C-alpha cells in the first residue's frame, strides 16, 4: 500500500521559514489533486493548501500569502514552503490526495513555532 512520507518540520522562531516535503507513489502524484493538512492537539485536521495535477494551487485564508504549495511529479514529491510562520501554525502537518485516502496518511511532521 502507498504511504506518503512527510518530512521537514522542526522548531522555529516566529517569522521563520520551513519547507516540508511529501514523498509517495508516482500514480498519486501524476493523477490526483494533493493537499497539505495540519492538526493541532485536540483539534480536527484542516486543509491548508491544495494543488492540482497540473499545478494549480489554492490556500486556506489563514496561510494565504505566507505558504506556497508546489509539486514535482517526476520526483514523486509535494512541497510546502512556509514563510512568516506564526505560533498558530504549530501543528502536525500531513499530506494526502483529495479526496483523502485513509491508507495514504503518513506519520506527519511536527511544526512548532515558538520563541
Please provide a written account of the structure.
The protein has 115 residues and is mainly beta. Helix content is 5%, strand content 46%. The chain contains 1 helix and 10 strands, in the order βββαβββββββ. The strands form 2 sheets. It has a 6-stranded mixed β-sheet. β4 and β5 form a beta hairpin. The chain is globular and about 40 Å long. The termini are far apart. 31% of the residues are buried. The model has no long low-confidence stretch (mean pLDDT 93).
Shape: globular
The radius of gyration is 13 Å
Instruction: Provide the β-strand percentage band.
Output: over 45%
Q: What is the β-strand count?
A: 10
The ordered string of helix (H) and strand (E) elements is EEEHEEEEEEE
Number of helices: 1
Structure summarized in a few sentences:
The chain has 115 residues and is mostly beta strands.
Q: What characteristics describe this protein?
A:
115 residues, mainly beta, 4-stranded antiparallel beta sheet, 1 helix, globular
Describe how the helices and strands are arranged.
Blueprint: E1 5-7, E2 10-12, E3 18-23, H1 26-31, E4 33-39, E5 46-51, E6 57-59, E7 67-72, E8 77-82, E9 91-98, E10 109-113
Parallel strand pairs: 2-10
Antiparallel strand pairs: 1-3, 3-8, 4-5, 4-9, 5-6, 7-8, 9-10
